[in-house]
């Protein structure tokens, strides 16, 4: 039996990092519990003090097919390279120069939103199609693929 997965990000600013990934992936903030119009209302009703209301955030795929992304505040910063990373399919169906141009355009857009460009890997046929390695605003590596 296949299992659902959730991808969890340890971070310093859950709301900020969630906003970055929502923009990148086309996800949306998970709706607050029933009976509440906003998360702030729900957290206040749960007794969460204002200083704890950015301790976590979650995103969902609006179409319901992708995994839930969960962002949790941790006290320490990122220490080393990720051993697991996300490949974001930013140029589906494209090859060669057209593919790399689409990846470059998305890399530029993401840099304007706080990402860092780390490296570009040129196409290397037959198996290497080329990709760009990026880091989100808190340094988590991912690839535009």
Task: Explain what you see.
The strands form two sheets. This protein has a four-stranded mixed beta sheet with strand order 1-4-3-2, covered by helices on one side. The protein has a four-stranded mixed beta sheet with strand order 5-8-7-6, covered by helices on one side. It has 145 residues and is an alpha/beta fold. The chain has helices at 14-25, 39-45, 96-111; strands at residues 6-11, 28-29, 56-60, 68-73, 86-88, 116-121, 131-135, 141-144. It is 24% helix and 26% strand.
Q: What is the ordering of alpha helices and beta strands?
A: EHEHEEEHEEE
State the helical fraction: 10-25%
Radius of gyration: 17 Å
Task: Indicate the low-confidence ranges by residue numbers.
Answer: none
Work out the helix count. Answer: 3
Helix-strand blueprint:
Elements: E1 6-11, H1 14-25, E2 28-29, H2 39-45, E3 56-60, E4 68-73, E5 86-88, H3 96-111, E6 116-121, E7 131-135, E8 141-144
Parallel strand pairs: 1-4, 5-8
Antiparallel strand pairs: 2-3, 3-4, 6-7, 7-8
Concise account of the structure shown:
This protein has three helices and eight strands, in the order E-H-E-H-E-E-E-H-E-E-E. The protein has helices spanning 14-25, 39-45, 96-111, and strands at 6-11, 28-29, 56-60, 68-73, 86-88, 116-121, 131-135, 141-144.
Label this structure with key terms.
3 helices, 4-stranded mixed beta sheet, 145 residues, alpha/beta
